[in-house]
Amino acid sequence: MAAFHYELPSNRIAMTPLVNRDASKLLVRKNKKIEHSSYQHLPDFLPSNCMMVFNNTRVIAARLRFKKSTGGEIEIFLLEPTDGNYESLNNLEQSSWKCLVGGAKKWKNNELLQVSSDIHNNKLQAQLVSKKDDHCLINFQWSSGLPFEKIISDTGKIPLPPYIKREATEDDQHRYQTVYAAHEGSVAAPTAGLHFTESLINKLSAKGIEHSFVTLHVGAGTFKPVTATFIGEHDMHEEYFQVNIGLISQLANTDKTIVSVGTTSLRTLESIYWIAVKAIRNKDNGFTSNNNLGQWEHLSLSEELLPTRAEAFQQLKELMNENAIESIAGHTGICIAPGYAFKVANALITNFHQPQSTLLLIISAIMGDEWRSMYANALENEYRFLSYGDGSLLFIDDKE
From CA 198, how far away is CA 1, in angstroms rounded? Predict the structure, then answer.
C-alpha cells in the first residue's frame, strides 16, 4: 500500500461545495493526453454512442444524537439494517440496525435513550442490544406511525465525511445528495454524481447519450483507511446493491461505450458481471434474486474461460426471465486493484481520492502508475479533492 501514497495538502481538500454543481473542474484523460475543462462541457468529451450508468442511492440522516437521563450525550451512526434488508426503512414501529456509537462505554444494556423532534411530534427511542468488535446492534422504537426513514430525517443529520470537521448545514442536506437520488440507504454520497444537474443530464440526452441506474448503498467503510501493508491483507467492506432486469437487458444488447458515474456504479457493474458468471456456471442448482460477491471471488472465477459482456448479461437475463425475477440484489465486497481486467465499464467519471485508499486502487487499476502524474497535474492546477471536490473522466484501457 505504500506505493499508493501521495502528499495531499489540506488546502486542496474541498470542505464545502461550489455554488453551482456543474461548475466543478473536470480533468479528462483520453488517448494518453490530459485536458482541463468543467462538467458543463462533459458532453463534448463523450461519444454519442455511449450509455452512462448512475447510482441512484439516497443518503439517509444517519447521525443521531440521544440524551441520557443523566444529561450525557450518546451519538449513534447508522450503518445498515441488522438483517441487511433496507425495506426496514419503511417500518412503522421498530427497526434494528448495526451502528457505530460514540460514548458506548457510558451506555448500559437495556437503558433506553430518547430523542425528540418538533417536526411531527416524533419521539425516537434507542435500546442497546449488544456490542460487537466493530459495531453495536441497536433496536429503535417509535409510536408516531411514520416510516423509520421519515423519523430519522426529522431527528438526525446528514453524515458528512469524517474529515469535514463541522456540523452539517441546511445546504448540505441538499448538496450532499445527487439530483437523481431515489432509494434511501447510503451513509455517504456517491460523490461523482454530485456534479450533475438536470440541465447537464438533458444536454447529455440531447446528444443521444443514454443513461440508466443501479442502486448501491454506500457504507461508512468507503472512508475506512487501509492499514494493512499489502492489499491482500485488507478486509474490504461490503455494500448492498440492487439492479433491475431492464439494465441487464440493455447491457446484453449493446456495444455502446459504458460510462460509469462513480466508483460505486463501477463496483456494481463489475460485480453483476461476476455474479452472472456464477449464475451461468451453477444454473442447474437454481437461480435466486439474492446474490453476493466476495472480495477476491473474481480471481477464482477467472481461472476458467470467461464469457464476453454481452454473453454474460444475455444469459443472466434469460435466467431471470425463466425464474420470473425482476431484479437481483445482494452484497458486494469486490476489491478492484491493479491488474484487474474490467469486464463492463469502458470509462469512469470520478472525484480525486485519498492517499492509500481502496478508491485510489481503482484509479491505479485503470491507469497503472500514471495515476501519479495525473494527480500531480490536478494538484498543480488547483483542483479541489475528495467528496465536495472536482472530478475526472478516465477512459479504461488507455494506458501503455
Answer: 39
| Grid cell locating 279 | 449464475
Write out pLDDT tens, residues 282-340. Answer: 988 888 999 999 999 999 999 999 999 999 999 999 999 999 999 999 999 999 999 99
Whether the CB-CB separation of 164 and 188 falls below 8 Å is answered with: no
Is residue 258 within 8 A of residue 53, CB to CB? The reply is yes
Q: Calculate the average pLDDT of the chain.
A: 94
Taking Cα atoms as reference points, which of 391, 89, 77 lies closest to residue 220? 77
Residues 6+ apart with CB under 8 A from 359: 222, 263, 350, 353
- How does pLDDT run across 59-89, given as a tens digit for each residue? 999 999 998 877 788 999 999 999 999 999 9
Domains (range + CATH), the chain? 2-58+181-395 (3.40.1780.10), 62-156 (2.40.10.240)
Amino acid identity of residue 268, one-letter, is: T
The Cα 390–Cα 176 span in angstroms is 14
- The CA distance from 168 to 388, in Å, is 13
Alpha-carbon gap, residue 269 to 212, rounded angstroms: 12
Q: Model confidence over 347-379: pLDDT tens digits? A: 999 999 999 999 999 999 999 999 999 999 999
CA distances, 113 to each of 108, 125, 139, 154, 364 (Å): 10, 5, 11, 17, 45
| 119 vs 57, residue with greater confidence | 57
* Residues in contact with 148: Cβ distance below 8 Å, sequence separation at least 6, in sequence order: 88, 89, 90, 91, 92, 95, 140, 142
With cell 458528512, the residue in question is: 160
Q: Give dist(CA 241, CA 331) in Å, integer.
A: 6
Q: Residue 155 belongs to what H/E stretch?
A: helix 148-155
- According to DSSP, the residues that pair with 101 across neighbouring strands are 76
pTM for the structure as a whole: 0.95
Cell digits for 317?
437475463
> Alpha carbon of 287 to those of 231, 280, 292, 324: distances in Å?
32, 9, 13, 10
| Cα 262 off chain centre by | 8
Check whether 119 has a pLDDT greater than 90. no
Q: How far apart are CA 276 and CA 274, in angstroms?
A: 5
